[in-house]
Write a structure and sequence with these properties.
The chain is elongated. It has 10 helices and 13 strands. It folds into 2 domains: about 210 residues, 3-Layer(aba) Sandwich (Rossmann fold), CATH 3.40.50; about 60 residues. It has about 300 residues and is of the alpha/beta class.
């Protein structure tokens, strides 16, 4: 543990014109932690990451990288971060190897050999021009350069987007290795399964605010148990049985019940419904997401 957290967002707020994007977001991340930011489009994930990189200056609050103020000393902060943006607007006339070496040359302790090994492992042609590569290949290049930067913090915006399953497994394994070496990983993702496998902690953003954060297993446990019901005929919520602590979501023939009661008690209460099918779901980040966002997801 160092004197400062590796990443510290302190009451970050930001708006684009009249549109508020971040509202008093605070989050501390220690060295060696892997933390995932989760939320639907427009929740503020990318804006929060960009406040750490110095791409945007928050209207209020501060973002720190290993104790360095990302707004007041943005160059010093960026030198400590390996960043992979969600966009792939790269120098298309350069080869993938040349682009990698160029991108990491601005960092104090770059590791070109690590980056080149990653390109090879991910199947990226080292001597091919970037303009000739697919979107997925470009995503692999920005990931490799983020890791090869050598900085103590790795920041990734949707790192597994457009990657095939084998590449996703390699990316996850690499990030675990980096965290084991003491590097901090902060990333946004819509891939909840990957977040659940990889992260020490997850933070859910909704309309610019962190609405839930904690260890993935603990968050999943908070949802209790869920039953997915398919009915033979449509019903409205007023026709469903109600008990203390029960929460229904859905419509017509498809409903989900969140509860904490013994299963036999629940089954006794729903026995009179026109059931066509029923599935018991263990807690997961997918279930947490559905519970938190409902119709906002998308």
């Amino acid at each position: 543990m160092t004197a400062h957290p590796a990443v510290h967002f302190d009451q970050i707020s930001h708006a684009f014109g009249a549109q508020s994007v971040l509202r008093n977001v605070s989050l501390r991340i220690e060295p060696g932690e892997i933390v995932g930011l989760i939320g639907p489009n427009g929740a503020g994930k990318s804006t929060l990451l960009r406040s750490l990189i110095g791409i945007i200056r928050p209207d209020r609050g501060r973002a720190y990288v290993c104790g360095t103020d990302a707004a007041r000393d943005s160059l010093a902060a960026r030198r400590q971060i390996g960043y992979a943006p969600s966009e792939t607007a790269l120098y298309h006339q350069m080869s993938s190897e040349s682009l990698l070496k160029f991108a990491i040359a601005f960092h104090p302790h770059p590791a070109a050999d690590v980056g080149l090994e990653l390109l090879e492992a991910l199947g990226v042609p080292r001597h091919k021009r970037v303009s000739q590569l697919s979107h997925g290949m470009k995503r692999k290049i920005v990931f490799a350069q983020a890791v090869a930067s050598g900085g103590p913090v790795i920041v990734l915006d949707e790192p597994t987007e457009a990657l095939d399953p084998e590449a996703r497994r390699l990316v996850e394994a690499q990030l675990r290795d980096e965290a084991d070496r003491g590097r901090t990983v902060l990333f946004s993702s819509h891939d909840l399964t990957s977040v659940e496998r990889l992260c020490h902690r997850a933070a859910f953003l909704r309309r610019g605010e962190i609405v839930r954060s904690g260890a993935a297993a603990e968050l999943a446990a908070e949802t209790g148990r869920l039953l997915h019901l398919e009915l033979r005929t449509a019903v409205n919520e007023e026709q469903l049985p109600q008990q203390p602590g029960w929460q229904w979501q859905g419509h017509a023939e498809r409903w989900t019940l969140q509860h904490r009661d013994p299963l036999e008690k629940v089954l006794a209460h729903i026995a009179e419904l026109p059931l066509a099918g029923i599935r018991d779901a263990a807690g997961s980040l997918e279930e947490v997401f559905d519970t938190l966002y409902g119709e906002d997801a998308g």
